[in-house]
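Hi Y.,

Following your request, here is the sequence exactly as I used it, all 136 residues.
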Amino acid sequence: MKKRYATAVWTGGKSGKGHLTTETTVLNQTPYTFSSRFEDGTETNPEELVAAAHSGCFSMKLSIVLEDAGFKPTSLETKSEVTIDSGVVTGSHLTLKAQVDGISDELFAKCVKDAEENCPISKLLDTKITVDYTLN
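Below is the corresponding structure, written out as C-alpha coordinates. Let me know if you'd prefer a different format.
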Protein backbone atom coordinates (compact mmCIF):
# COMPACT_ATOMS: atom_id res chain seq x y z
CA MET A 1 0.00 0.00 0.00
CA LYS A 2 1.32 3.42 -0.97
CA LYS A 3 0.09 6.62 0.63
CA ARG A 4 0.36 10.07 -0.96
CA TYR A 5 -0.19 13.38 0.75
CA ALA A 6 -0.72 17.06 0.18
CA THR A 7 -1.05 19.91 2.66
CA ALA A 8 -3.42 22.88 2.52
CA VAL A 9 -2.94 26.01 4.62
CA TRP A 10 -5.81 28.53 4.73
CA THR A 11 -5.86 31.87 6.54
CA GLY A 12 -8.93 34.04 7.00
CA GLY A 13 -12.56 33.58 5.99
CA LYS A 14 -14.10 33.91 2.52
CA SER A 15 -11.76 36.76 1.68
CA GLY A 16 -8.80 34.75 2.96
CA LYS A 17 -6.24 32.88 0.99
CA GLY A 18 -4.44 29.59 1.06
CA HIS A 19 -1.67 27.56 -0.44
CA LEU A 20 -1.19 23.92 -1.34
CA THR A 21 1.96 21.80 -1.19
CA THR A 22 2.24 18.25 -2.46
CA GLU A 23 4.55 15.51 -1.27
CA THR A 24 6.65 15.80 -4.43
CA THR A 25 6.57 19.63 -4.21
CA VAL A 26 5.27 19.85 -7.77
CA LEU A 27 2.81 22.15 -6.03
CA ASN A 28 4.86 24.16 -3.57
CA GLN A 29 2.88 26.76 -1.65
CA THR A 30 0.68 27.14 -4.74
CA PRO A 31 -1.97 29.78 -4.01
CA TYR A 32 -5.70 29.09 -4.06
CA THR A 33 -8.61 31.42 -3.23
CA PHE A 34 -12.39 31.68 -3.20
CA SER A 35 -12.27 33.92 -6.27
CA SER A 36 -10.41 31.26 -8.24
CA ARG A 37 -13.03 28.73 -7.22
CA PHE A 38 -16.26 30.67 -7.73
CA GLU A 39 -15.28 33.64 -9.88
CA ASP A 40 -12.39 34.37 -12.22
CA GLY A 41 -9.34 34.35 -9.97
CA THR A 42 -5.97 33.33 -11.39
CA GLU A 43 -4.95 30.95 -8.59
CA THR A 44 -5.77 27.24 -8.59
CA ASN A 45 -8.81 25.68 -6.93
CA PRO A 46 -9.89 22.23 -5.74
CA GLU A 47 -12.03 21.48 -8.80
CA GLU A 48 -9.19 22.31 -11.20
CA LEU A 49 -6.97 19.93 -9.26
CA VAL A 50 -9.65 17.21 -9.38
CA ALA A 51 -9.90 17.76 -13.16
CA ALA A 52 -6.12 17.37 -13.51
CA ALA A 53 -6.16 14.24 -11.37
CA HIS A 54 -9.07 12.72 -13.30
CA SER A 55 -7.66 13.40 -16.77
CA GLY A 56 -4.24 12.09 -15.77
CA CYS A 57 -5.59 8.99 -14.04
CA PHE A 58 -7.97 8.16 -16.90
CA SER A 59 -5.17 8.48 -19.48
CA MET A 60 -2.86 6.23 -17.47
CA LYS A 61 -5.58 3.61 -16.92
CA LEU A 62 -6.53 3.67 -20.60
CA SER A 63 -2.90 3.12 -21.62
CA ILE A 64 -2.81 0.03 -19.38
CA VAL A 65 -6.10 -1.30 -20.74
CA LEU A 66 -4.94 -0.75 -24.33
CA GLU A 67 -1.60 -2.47 -23.75
CA ASP A 68 -3.37 -5.41 -22.10
CA ALA A 69 -5.49 -5.63 -25.29
CA GLY A 70 -2.31 -5.69 -27.40
CA PHE A 71 -2.17 -2.04 -28.50
CA LYS A 72 0.38 0.59 -27.56
CA PRO A 73 -1.11 4.09 -27.80
CA THR A 74 0.89 6.69 -29.70
CA SER A 75 -0.92 9.54 -27.96
CA LEU A 76 -3.72 10.02 -25.41
CA GLU A 77 -4.77 13.61 -24.68
CA THR A 78 -7.55 13.91 -22.12
CA LYS A 79 -9.27 17.04 -20.89
CA SER A 80 -11.49 16.83 -17.82
CA GLU A 81 -14.13 19.48 -17.21
CA VAL A 82 -15.40 19.32 -13.64
CA THR A 83 -18.74 21.03 -12.99
CA ILE A 84 -19.60 22.52 -9.61
CA ASP A 85 -23.15 23.67 -8.86
CA SER A 86 -24.24 25.14 -5.52
CA GLY A 87 -21.06 23.90 -3.87
CA VAL A 88 -21.40 20.32 -5.14
CA VAL A 89 -19.35 18.63 -7.87
CA THR A 90 -22.03 17.44 -10.28
CA GLY A 91 -19.95 15.90 -13.04
CA SER A 92 -16.68 15.27 -14.78
CA HIS A 93 -16.73 15.28 -18.56
CA LEU A 94 -13.69 13.77 -20.24
CA THR A 95 -12.76 14.68 -23.81
CA LEU A 96 -10.18 12.34 -25.31
CA LYS A 97 -8.11 12.65 -28.46
CA ALA A 98 -6.39 9.33 -29.09
CA GLN A 99 -4.00 7.92 -31.60
CA VAL A 100 -3.84 4.13 -31.42
CA ASP A 101 -2.73 2.33 -34.56
CA GLY A 102 -4.59 -0.77 -35.71
CA ILE A 103 -7.39 -0.85 -33.12
CA SER A 104 -11.03 -1.21 -34.15
CA ASP A 105 -13.60 1.38 -33.10
CA GLU A 106 -15.53 -1.30 -31.21
CA LEU A 107 -12.55 -2.50 -29.17
CA PHE A 108 -11.41 1.05 -28.51
CA ALA A 109 -14.87 1.97 -27.17
CA LYS A 110 -14.70 -1.02 -24.78
CA CYS A 111 -11.25 0.06 -23.59
CA VAL A 112 -12.45 3.63 -23.00
CA LYS A 113 -15.43 2.35 -20.99
CA ASP A 114 -13.14 0.17 -18.89
CA ALA A 115 -10.85 3.12 -18.12
CA GLU A 116 -13.83 5.40 -17.40
CA GLU A 117 -15.25 2.98 -14.85
CA ASN A 118 -12.03 1.67 -13.33
CA CYS A 119 -9.48 4.44 -13.05
CA PRO A 120 -8.99 5.13 -9.32
CA ILE A 121 -10.16 8.76 -9.56
CA SER A 122 -13.36 7.73 -11.39
CA LYS A 123 -14.02 5.27 -8.58
CA LEU A 124 -13.36 7.99 -6.01
CA LEU A 125 -15.73 10.52 -7.55
CA ASP A 126 -19.36 10.19 -6.55
CA THR A 127 -20.67 12.02 -9.61
CA LYS A 128 -21.73 11.59 -13.22
CA ILE A 129 -18.79 10.85 -15.54
CA THR A 130 -19.07 11.16 -19.31
CA VAL A 131 -16.53 10.64 -22.10
CA ASP A 132 -16.39 11.86 -25.68
CA TYR A 133 -13.49 10.75 -27.84
CA THR A 134 -11.93 10.90 -31.24
CA LEU A 135 -9.70 8.11 -32.46
CA ASN A 136 -7.12 8.70 -35.17
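The two ends are 37 Å apart (CA to CA).

Thanks again,
Q.
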